[in-house]
Amino acid sequence: MTVLITAATTLIGVAVGGWVTLQAQRRLLRRDDHTQWRDIRLAAYTSYLNAFREYVAYVQRPGAHMSVVPRPLPPHDPMPIFDESGSGYKERLEATKTVLRLVSGQPRVVRASNLMVRCARQMAADRAVHAVEALPSERFEQLWSAEREFVLAARGELGLPNDFEIGDRQPRGTDGEGDEFELSPLAVWIQYPE
Q1: Is the CA virtual torsion 111, 162, 124, 179 positive or negative?
Q2: What pLDDT is recorded for position 184?
Q3: What is the model's pTM?
Q4: What's the whole-number mean pLDDT along residues 128-150?
Q5: Sign (positive/negative) of CA torsion 78, 79, 84, 89?
Q6: Radius of gyration of the chain (CA)
C-alpha cells in the first residue's frame, strides 16, 4: 500500500511539474513571437518612412519631371506619372506600403499610411503643374501632419508611448473632421492653427 501511495505521489508530482514547465515554455514562446513581430513591424515601418521621405524629396527636386492624369475610377483624384528617374521612388513607396499592410496589426496604422500616400500623391500632382517654389504651403503641413499621425499610430502598435507631442506646440482639439480615426492634438493643431 505504501508503494502505491509513493508511486501515485510521484506520478502526480511529475504531471504537475510537466504542466508548470509546459506553461512556462508557452509563455516564453508567446513573448518571443511578440518580440519577433515587433521587430518585423519596426523594420517595415522604418523602410516605409524612408521610402516616403525619398519620394517627397524627389518630388521637391527642381529637375524632377512628372505629369498628372485624373484617376479613371472614383474618386477621380489626380494621379502623378513619373519619368524613368522618378518611377523607382514611386515603386519603392508602393512596395513598402504593401509590406506595411501585410505585417501591420492595427487598422489605424494602415489608415495613417493611406493618408500619407494620398498627401504625397497630391503634392506630386501639384508639383507636376507648379514649380517647387510655388507648391502650396498647406500641402507641406498636410504631408508632415500625416507623417506624424503614422508615427504616433506605429508607436502605439509597437507598445511605445504615443502620447507625446513634437516640439513646443500646445495641443488643441480632440478629433479630426472627415478622417476615419481620431487625430492627435498635434495634428489638430497643425490642421487648424490659431
Answers
A1: positive
A2: 59
A3: 0.72
A4: 89
A5: positive
A6: 25
Q: Hey, what's the cell of 88?
A: 523607382
Average pLDDT of the chain is: 82
Distance of CA 179 to the CA centre of its chain: 16
Whether the bond into 171 is cis, omega within 30 of 0: no
Each residue of 10-27: pLDDT tens digit? 878 877 788 878 777 778
- The secondary structure element, H or E, covering residue 187 is helix 185-191
User: Strand pairing partners for 82?
Assistant: 66
Lowest mean pLDDT among 42-51, 72-81, 94-103: 72-81
* CA dihedral sign, ordered 133, 52, 50, 191: positive
Query: If we measure between CA atoms, which residue out of 78, 56, 58 comes closest to residue 67?
Result: 78
Give residue 193's identity as a one-letter amino acid code: P
Phi and psi angles of residue 181, each rounded to the nearest 5 degrees, phi first: -145, 160
- The answer to whether 79 touches 68, Cβ cutoff 8 Å, is yes
